[in-house]
Amino acid sequence: MLLYLHVPFCQTKCHYCSFHSYIQHNSLKEAYIKAVMVQFQNEAKHFNLAPASLSSFFIGGGTPSTLTPAQYAPLFEIISPYLHPEAEISTEANPNTANRSWIEGMIALGVNRMSFGVQSFHQDKLAFLGRNHTNDEACRAIETAASLGVNSVSIDLMYGTAMDTKTSLKKELDFAFALPISHLSAYALTLEEGTPFYNRTETLNPSEPLARWFAKAITHRGFKQYEISNFGTVFCQHNLGYWEHRRYIGLGCGAVGYDGTARLYPSQEIHTYLKKPATQRREVLSPQEIITEKIFLGLRSHIGVAMGLLTPEQQARASLLEKEKKVFFSNDRVYNCDYFLSDELALFIL
C-alpha cells in the first residue's frame, strides 16, 4: 500500500506548472495539516489499513518545503504506526526553501529520500522557466541532504525548451553527475492549459532526436532508465507501486487515491477541502479500464505487462511487435524496447 500527500502551497508559480497549488493561502498551513489528519483517519478505515502496511509515503506538491518539519510532525505521529519499518519516505523540495535545518528536521521525522526540483543548472534557463532558486542553492541542498545521510537523493531536470541544445544539456548532466545523486527524473517541457507558457510554441524545442540523445546520455552516465522519465541506480519504490497498479491513498486537495476498484478524489478547492476533508468523489473503473491502465503503465516502465492480461488477439499483436523488435517477451510478460513509443505500442496492442 502506498500513501501520497499533496502539499498545495508554493512561493511562486512556475511558468510551465499546471499542478494544483496556491501562492496566496500560506496562513492555512496548520489548518490544512489538521484536515489531512482527519482524512487519513477516514482513509485508514476505508482501506482497512493494518499496522506497518504502508511500503511508501511520498510528499509532493506544490512545494512541500514551504511547510516546516514541526508543521508535519502531528501528521507523522498518526501515520507512523502504519509505516513499514523499511518504508521509503520521500519528500519533494525546492532548493531555495530546503535549508540545512529543514533537511535535518525532515530526516528526524523519518524521511529517507529527497527529490529536488532543480529543473536546470543554467541561471538563464531557470529565469526562463520562472524558477526562484539559483544554481548554488541547488548544489548546496543536494550536497547537504547527502552529507546528512539521506539514502537516495533525486533531482528533476527539464528538457525540450527552446534554450536546449546538445551542448547545453551536456553541461546540465556534467553538473548533475558531479553531485551525490542516485536518481534523476527528466521531463520534457509541455504546454499546459492555464499556464503562462500555454500557446507559446516558441518556448519549445520538440526535437525527438534531441530527446532520445538526452535519455541515452543519462544512461551512458550509469543510470538505468526504468520508466519514460526516470533513471537511477536506486529506483523510486513509490512510483514503481503506481506502475504496478497497487492501491494507494491520496491525501490533500488535488490528490487522487485508488482502492483497487475506483479512483478517489478529495475536493480540489482548498476551502472546501478544509471543511469536508473526508468527502471524496468516487470514480468506479470497469474491469476493462483497469486492464487498459495496466497495459499503458506496464509498457511505459520496466514493469511490463503480464501475457495473461491480454486476449488471444492482443497477444498476436504483441507477437507482431516482438518480431519487429519493438517489444520483447520474458517470463510470460511483455516488455517495451523503446519508451518513447510507449503509448503507440499500447494502443496497437489494444
TrEMBL record:
Function: Probably acts as a heme chaperone, transferring heme to an unknown acceptor. Binds one molecule of heme per monomer, possibly covalently. Binds 1 [4Fe-4S] cluster. The cluster is coordinated with 3 cysteines and an exchangeable S-adenosyl-L-methionine.
Organism of origin: Sulfurospirillum tamanense
Keyword S-adenosyl-L-methionine among UniProt keywords: yes
PANTHER family: COPROPORPHYRINIGEN III OXIDASE, RADICAL S-ADENOSYL METHIONINE DOMAIN-CONTAINING PROTEIN 1, MITOCHONDRIAL
Coiled-coil stretches: none
Alphabetical list of InterPro entries matching this protein: Coproporphyrinogen-III_oxidase, Elp3/MiaA/NifB-like_rSAM, HemW-like, rSAM, rSAM_horseshoe, rSAM_sf
Cellular localisation: Cytoplasm
NCBIfam families per record: hemN_rel
Superkingdom of source: Bacteria
Domain Radical SAM core: 1-227
Protein name: Heme chaperone HemW
Keyword Ribonucleoprotein set for record: no
Keywords: 4Fe-4S, Chaperone, Cytoplasm, Heme, Iron, Iron-sulfur, Metal-binding, S-adenosyl-L-methionine
Stored SMART domains: Elp3
PROSITE patterns: RADICAL_SAM (PS51918)
Residues of the signal peptide: none
Subcellular location, principal: cytoplasm
Sequence similarity: Belongs to the anaerobic coproporphyrinogen-III oxidase family. HemW subfamily.
